[in-house]
From TrEMBL:
Annotated source species: Rhizobium oryziradicis
Pfam families, alphabetized: adh_short_C2
Coiled coil: none
Protein name per Swiss-Prot or TrEMBL: 3-oxoacyl-ACP reductase
InterPro entries linked: NAD(P)-bd_dom_sf (IPR036291), SDR (IPR050259), SDR_fam (IPR002347)
Gene3D superfamilies: NAD(P)-binding Rossmann-like Domain
Sequence similarity: Belongs to the short-chain dehydrogenases/reductases (SDR) family.
Length: 261
């Protein structure tokens, strides 16, 4: 299938590794010109080199979602390096594990800024151009925790949940401009983040990493962890021209793990 995004300009947040990088590679493979951001220049350079070597076009900008100037930095980078925007992939790092009782005002405020405020304000800053050109794709990576809260990830469940109401509201407001807004929900996709979370759970439960991983996989009907490439392919499709009538949705990529309808 031709996704119809060759030559489109895409900004992918938090693309130093993992899911963000996977989506950036998938978009570049379809001919999109990608701009990736992250905190580590060495990783970003290497990622761009890999994308370029595979025949794609990639640029990078060093930026931290926790920085108060993040939105201004990204708007300037989009203009300077891409000359405009067609596709925005909102992706953020996950917060520290913990229970609901572990949350306090300092943690809530800090992660709310980087995971919610920056996503919304950057999207709003880039929307005018999408509206003027009559095309836009806004894809926000959240978590399966917005469907079924994940144990020991109370901060993530809480803050990513806020993006659900925002995305649905936004999608109805911009649909008439040829802009779609969707959430992509990863289940157990094998990334460094999953390894870190499994390690934290193993320590908390007094078990080995292998024991925790085996128990987790048993809850997945597909019988395995998902791959970044599988997740990224779903993301690329939601950013495509054929997906123009899909908006305001939440797509789970979880191997059937969620038990809700």
């Amino acid at each position: 299938m031709d996704l119809g995004i060759s030559g489109k300009r895409a900004l992918v947040l938090a693309a130093s590794r993992g899911l963000g990088l996977g989506i950036a590679k998938a978009l570049a493979a379809e001919g999109a010109h990608v701009l990736i951001c992250g905190r580590t220049e060495e990783k970003l350079k290497a990622n761009c080199a890999e994308i370029t070597a595979a025949g794609g076009t990639a640029h990078y900008v060093v930026a931290d979602l926790a920085d108060a100037h993040f939105v201004d930095t990204m708007v300037t980078a989009v203009s300077d390096k891409l000359g405009g925007i067609d596709i925005l992939v909102n992706n953020t790092g996950g917060p520290t594990p913990g229970t609901a009782e572990d949350m306090n005002a300092e943690k809530l405020y800090s992660f709310f800024q980087s995971m919610v405020v920056r996503v919304i304000t950057l999207t709003n800053a880039l929307l005018p151009q999408m509206k003027s050109q009559g095309f836009g794709r806004i894809l926000t990576v959240a978590s399966s925790g917005v469907i079924e809260p994940i144990g020991n990830l109370a901060l993530s469940n809480t803050l990513r949940g806020a993006l659900v109401g925002w995305n649905k509201t936004l999608s109805t407001e911009v649909a008439g401009f040829g802009i779609t807004a969707n959430l992509l929900l990863p289940g157990r996709i094998h990334t460094d983040r999953i390894d870190e979370l499994d390690g934290a759970n193993a320590k908390r439960q007094g078990k080995s990493l292998e024991e925790v991983r085996t128990a987790s996989v048993k809850t997945i009907p597909a019988g395995r962890l998902g791959t970044v490439d599988e997740f990224a392919a779903a993301g690329a499709f939601l950013c495509s021209t054929p997906a123009s009538y899909i908006t305001g949705t939440m797509l789970r990529v979880d191997g059937g793990a969620a038990k809700s309808l």
